[in-house]
């Protein structure tokens, strides 16, 4: 089995993948630990032959995790943000400072589409662009839905947005404080994604496929005006592309890769942008 770990600052996700069939056998998520407990926080390592890690947690957390795994598992692969990989050139002045989760998403998106806008809707919402030909432009970081809500300090922190809510409902004025907060942060988030996507496509003269991932991708998706796809395993797919360990991965098949709709015509994107600037 392959154990894939996507370690965030607060939440860590894992999955077990069968080497022979390339099927996902199980998955889960826990709060990021200072000390991991195999069999409790992560699966029993007796069945694991290799581990792949993407981590944005503190260096000490990653080092302790790697040390634990290396004592129990034959191969431990740790992803890092580098100047160039898999045909993509990192757009950061200091490539190593780009969050590795963003880098994995950019690499996975490029392998799937040949140029994309990747949006990770987690604690922060990150928006990265890779042009056809592999030039990563860099990106944007804005507060995520939960972070924006917590910053208001209005006692609504634990009242989450229903991911099944319709966009029209979430974009309407709130009729109580909880609704006003939820609808306000939703409007801020989706408006930012829509505007950033349109601005960059306009400036670069290309309509890019749009991919969403992260815990809030499903709810943010409802307010995105352009054709797009949700890819929950996009960071894992970056690990697969960087460290292919199964026959399917070596053939370029990434688990959970979605059907990506054709992006809107650039003329339509520009028309919508021009209209929004008049408001």
Automatic annotation (TrEMBL):
GO terms for cellular component: cytoplasm. ATP binds at residues 6-13, 123. A monovalent cation. Ammonium or potassium. The active site is at residue 101. It is found in: Cytoplasm. GO terms for molecular function: ATP binding; metal ion binding; pantothenate kinase activity. Signal peptide: none annotated. The keyword ATP-binding applies. It is an enzyme of class 2 (transferase). Substrate binds at residues 92, 99-102, 177. It holds the Pfam family Pan_kinase. K(+) binds at residue 120. Belongs to the type III pantothenate kinase family. This is Type III pantothenate kinase.
């Amino acid at each position: 089995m392959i154990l894939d770990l996507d370690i965030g600052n607060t939440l860590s996700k894992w999955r077990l993948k069968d080497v022979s069939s390339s099927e996902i056998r199980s998955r889960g998520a826990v709060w990021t630990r200072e000390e991991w407990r195999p069999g409790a926080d992560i699966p029993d390592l007796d069945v694991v032959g290799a581990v792949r890690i993407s981590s944005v947690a503190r260096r000490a957390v990653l080092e302790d995790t790697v040390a634990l795994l290396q004592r129990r598992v034959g191969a431990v692969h740790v992803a890092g943000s580098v100047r160039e990989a898999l045909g993509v050139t990192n757009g950061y002045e200091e490539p190593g400072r780009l969050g590795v989760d963003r880098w994995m998403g950019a690499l996975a998106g490029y392998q799937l589409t040949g140029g994309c806008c990747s949006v990770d809707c987690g604690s922060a919402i990150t928006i990265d662009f890779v042009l056809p030909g592999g030039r990563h432009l860099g990106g944007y970081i804005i507060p995520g839905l939960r972070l924006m809500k917590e910053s208001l300090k209005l006692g609504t922190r634990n009242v989450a947005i229903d991911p099944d809510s319709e966009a029209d409902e979430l974009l309407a004025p709130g009729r109580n404080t909880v609704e006003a907060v939820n609808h306000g942060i939703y409007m801020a988030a989706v408006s930012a994604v829509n505007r950033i996507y349109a601005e960059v496509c306009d400036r670069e003269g290309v309509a890019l496929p749009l991919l969403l991932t992260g815990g809030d991708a499903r709810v943010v998706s409802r307010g995105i005006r352009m054709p797009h796809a949700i890819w929950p395993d996009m960071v894992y797919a970056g690990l697969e592309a960087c460290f292919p360990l199964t026959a399917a991965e070596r053939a370029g098949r990434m688990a959970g890769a979605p059907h990506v709709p054709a992006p809107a015509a650039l003329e339509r994107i520009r028309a919508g942008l021009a209209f929004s600037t008049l408001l």
